[in-house]
Amino acid sequence: MGQRRIVVGSALALAATLLVTACSGGSDSAGSSDDIDTAPKGEGQTLTVWTYEDKTSAMGIAWEEAMKKFTEETGAKVDFQLKSFEQINQSASQVLNSDSAPDVMEYNKGNATSGLLSSQGLLTDIGPAVKAYGWADKLSSSLQTTARYSDTGVMGSGNWYGIPNYGEYVQVYYNKDLFKKYDLEVPTTLDEFTQVLQTFKDKSITPLAESAQEYPLGQLLYQLALMNADRKWVTDYQTYTAPADFHDANWTAAANTLKEWVDKGYISKSSTGQKAQDAGDAFIAGTNPIFFSGSWWYGNFTTSNKFDWGTFLFPGAKLSPGSSGNLWVVPENSDAKDLAYKFMDITMSPEIQNLLGNNGGIPVAAEPDAITDEKSKDLINNFTTLNDQDGLAFYPDWPAPTFYADLNSSLQELVNGSKPVDAVLDQLQTDYDKGVKEIDG
Predict the structure, then answer these.
(1) Is a pLDDT exceeding 60 seen at residue 5?
(2) How would DSSP label each residue in 178-247?
(3) CB atoms < 10 A from the CB of 68, how many?
(4) DSSP per position, 93-160
(5) How many CA atoms does the CB half-sphere of 32 hold within 13 Å?
(6) CA–CA gap between residue 266 and residue 186 (Å, rounded)
(7) Where do runs of H (alpha helix) occur along 214-273?
(8) Euclidean distance between CA atoms 255 and 265, whole angstroms
(9) pLDDT tens string 248-307
């Protein structure tokens, strides 16, 4: 294994196997890096930044410091607006096509989100800024995959429309105190994991904190589908290199397992009305001892959990949901683009990246010796393990613009029993095919 920067460096080889076109060739961006002012002065100006990172999260802590540094260096003020993931996800196209667009926005990566907006002309091609600031030198090819999009909005090649400055993945969070109370060990296989779930249910404890209204349950379904999948399966699903079949062995087994877990009480039927934050809060409260979700919860749990807790990768999995983190994007309607680029560059600086890493984030350009927090090291080590086995499989909702909502809707029907497994898979197939056709023709 080659030398790597903290977490990411040359060990990240995902793009080479996932997207054969990833990052090929140079950007044909309009303009030149010579047009970018890398030392803009912003006295009397205000930079509007939208993000959905909680202030207690690693990213929230890091961006708060970045704003202070930005103001010191440019003289500009920052109007920092915290939005929910759903607010930005549902209204991005409308807002970015209006005078209310922010100057910098955190946005989800993938064909259905950043890819769609780029194809609609709503995001700025930031290729000149990438060259002027040297951001490409800080990002491995796999991280660049989600930052570049073709004319039709398919990730992996084309112009730069965003910059990721952290990594992320989905893992299992568990309540160590409750595991100890019931003499449970960290499971290493899916069968052992199921036995843990049953043990808690036998003690009248619903083991899994879940949300079917938002992303957590969709990520669990995808993880179960990935258990016997390979890289080609992921590539076909994410980039349309071959038709995806929701009645194949992987999806069928995943949906049946999820339905079984609901029937056995491992997942509450009330999760149909739960949002992601509700599920996270239930884990924090100690109501549910297990939560399968993203590394972005790590910082919040560090400050909020009143019990001993830990993490592990999903038992027996070689592939799991994960990728670069969300992107900083610059709306085309922004009238402060040089200041926007400066703010983005500050978030990529060693000072901010080190802060991110020491507060439970996964930095892309930190200094290895600067990461001293032990829990943060655990988080980074889990990511490194997953990454070293070429295990980042992106996310289930990425392939099509409306598939996030479609997936959640279908899973709500699976959980509440209004549709049988076959009918749910039929609906997912219809929604997926419709969405891919809109992108790929």
Answers:
(1) no
(2) HHHHTT-PPP-SHHHHHHHHHHHHHTT---B---SSSTHHHHHHHHHHHTT--HHHHHHHHH-SS---TT
(3) 11
(4) HHHHTSTT--SEEEE--SIIIIIHHHHTT-B---HHHHHHHTGGGGS-HHHHHTTEE-TT--BTSSEE
(5) 2
(6) 17
(7) 216-226, 231-239, 249-263
(8) 15
(9) 999 999 999 999 999 999 999 999 999 999 999 999 999 999 999 999 898 889 889 999
- Hey, is 363 helix, strand or coil? strand
Do the Cβ atoms of 204 and 210 come closer than 8 Å?
no
Tallying the residues shown for the chain, one arrives at: 441
Q: Are 207 and 289 in contact (CB under 8 A)?
A: yes
User: How far is it, in rounded angstroms, from Cα 350 to Cα 138?
Assistant: 11
**Tokens for 152?**
């039709």
Helix 403-416 / helix 216-226 crossing angle, nearest 10 deg: 90
| Cα–Cα distance measured from residue 338 to residue 55, given in angstroms and rounded to the nearest whole number | 25
- According to the model, what pLDDT value does residue 142 have? 67
How far apart, in whole angstroms, are the C-alpha atoms of residue 404 and residue 401?
A: 8
Q: What's at 369, amino acid-wise?
A: D
> Which residue is listed with tokens 């999948």?
229
Beta strand pairing call for 327-329 and 104-107:
antiparallel
pTM: 0.75
Query: Could you count the other beta carbons within 10 Å of the beta carbon of residue 375?
Result: 17
Secondary structure class of 33 (helix, strand, coil): helix
Give the integer Cα–Cα distance in Å for 197 and 184.
10
Write down the residue that tokens 């949906």 correspond to.
255
- Domains (range + CATH), the chain: 14-166+325-366 (3.40.190.10), 169-322+394-440 (3.40.190.10)
Residue type, 439: I
142 CA to centre of own chain: 14
